[in-house]
Structure formats: C-alpha cells, structure tokens
UniProtKB/TrEMBL annotation:
This is Interleukin 1 receptor, type I, isoform CRA_c. Residues 1-19 form the signal peptide. PANTHER family: INTERLEUKIN-1 RECEPTOR FAMILY MEMBER (PTHR11890), INTERLEUKIN-1 RECEPTOR TYPE 1 (PTHR11890:SF26). Residues 16-115, 121-217, 229-283 form the Ig-like domain. One of its GO terms (molecular function) is interleukin-1, type I, activating receptor activity. GO terms for cellular component: membrane.
C-alpha cells in the first residue's frame, strides 16, 4: 500500500508538467486552414517539414486545452503516430488544433484551423472545400484526387476512386476520360470539360467502412485566347525637352510575363549600343 501511494504521487506530478509543454514553444506565425466533410473519415498531418520534425515528438491539442488529444484508437478523435484522426469528423469538431513538436533542444508549435462542412444545398459537395486544378485546352492531362496517401492498403496501394462531374457519374469509356489510380486522365482537353469534379472512395477502420470525398474545380486554360498586352501610358502624348538635356520616357504596360516590350525611334528599334538612346525595363 505504501508503494502504491508513492506511485500515485509520481503520476500527479507528471500531468502538470505535460500541460505546461505548450507554453514554452515557438509558434509559427502562419496559420493552416483545412476543411473536412461531415461524417467522413479524415486524417491530418502536422504541417512541419521533415527537418523540423527530425528526432522530435509530435503531440496534438484542441483549442486552448492543456490536455493532449487521446491516443486511444477507439476514440473518435485520436492521435495515431504523428497524425490526427477523425473517425468520422463531426460538425462540433470545427475549431483550431495545435501540433506541438518537441525535441531535446527546441519546441515548435503550429496552429491548424479546421472547418467541418456539410454539402451545399442541392449539391454533393461544399464549394469551400474545393481544390482548384488547371489543364491546357487541346492537350492531355490529369486531375488528381488529393490527399489519399493515408488510405493506402496493406500492399501500399491507393484505393479505387469513382469520379463524378457536377454530381453525376462520369463515364470513363467515352475516349475523353480514363481512371488510373487516384487520377482522372483527360484526353484532348476542351472548354466543355471545365466544371466541378468529385472523387469518392472509402476506407475501412476497426471493421467499419467510412466515405472519403474530394471535390476539384477544373479550370481550362486556352492559350489562343490569351489577353493581348495593353499600353497604359504614354497614350499619344507629346513631351518637350530642352536641347542638350536628359529626359526619361516611361512606358507602362500590363500583360503576361513573356510579353516583349520595347521602344522604337522613327519606326526603328533602338540598338543596344546606341550612344544617345538607352532603354531598360522592370517587371
């Protein structure tokens, strides 16, 4: 009985020490914002680089709680290895979470604001959770169903994905679309291919199957319709200068990074070694 009293006293001392860990960390100024779908399984990683996490221990906290999130795998919200699991995510899980990395020399703290969302009325997704992806018109490319690495099977294979466009099943045998692992191959991209694409799969945890959904806003890029550069100034202006003086003329142009801007003198381009006229540019 005496040994038991000593052990209990030791445990009581450890708990306050753990609760003070978050107060001595360097907090990253950048806040990470993430979205999850209600009633779906979700796994979050600590947004630190491998170098920052090397040799350290990761602990998760919710809001301003001083108590770490449970490591019990039967708990709906729990920490498993370095990741934060929601099995499944609920509306009340919205809020902010702290990922704390501590090693023998320093401690880092980063904040993740999480919003658990319901689908928009009449839709199979919430537009706030959309990932924007772009492909060039007339070329071939692929849309990627993001963040599925956590749901690989025991053979390290990604789960099978079903694709939908504007919430309707997408036919994958019409010559334009082909499914490959977590990618949707788009052949001969056209303007009519733009829209909202949903990729769906599922993951079995503790014997129960949970849905996983991602929504992608697909934007097409038509290089043939690229905007022409516009000269903002000067516009048919006349400037006077005294003989022998130096004058600076500024041409202000808006356009693409690859647009070429240059001056002409009496209809001819200015030579780079002209002793009188010299031009320069800034982006």
């Amino acid at each position: 009985m005496e040994n038991m009293k000593v052990l209990l006293g030791f445990i009581c001392l450890i708990v306050p020490l753990l609760s003070l860990e978050t107060d001595k960390c360097t907090e990253y100024p950048n806040e990470v914002i993430s979205f999850s779908s209600v009633n779906e399984i979700d796994i979050r990683s600590c947004p630190l680089t491998p170098n920052e996490m090397h040799g350290g221990t990761i602990i998760w906290y919710k809001n301003d709680s001083k108590t770490p999130i449970s490591a019990d795998k039967d708990s709906r919200i729990h920490q498993q290895n370095e990741h934060l699991w929601f099995v499944p995510a609920k509306m009340e899980d919205s809020g902010y979470y702290y990922c704390i990395m501590r090693n023998s020399t320093y401690c880092l703290k980063t904040k993740i604001t999480m919003s658990v969302l319901e689908n928009d009325p009449g839709l199979c997704y919430n537009t706030q959770a959309s990932f924007i992806q772009r492909l060039h018109v007339a070329g071939d490319g692929s849309l990627v169903c993001p963040y599925l690495d956590f749901f690989k099977d025991e053979n390290n294979e990604l789960p099978k994905v079903q694709w939908y466009k504007n919430c309707k099943p997408l036919p994958l045998d019409d010559g334009n679309f082909f499914g490959f692992k977590n990618k949707l191959m788009v052949m001969n991209v056209a303007e009519e291919h733009r829209g909202n694409y949903t990729c769906r799969t599922s993951y079995t945890y503790q014997g129960k199957q949970y849905p996983v959904t991602r929504v992608i806003t697909f934007i097409t890029i038509d290089d043939s319709k690229r905007d022409r550069p516009v000269i903002m100034s000067p516009r048919n202006e006349t400037m006077e200068a005294d003989p022998g003086s130096t004058i600076q003329l500024i041409c202000n142009v808006t356009g693409q990074f690859t647009d070429l801007v240059y001056w002409k003198w009496n209809g001819s381009e200015i030579e780079w070694d002209d002793p009188i006229l010299a031009e320069d540019y800034q982006l």
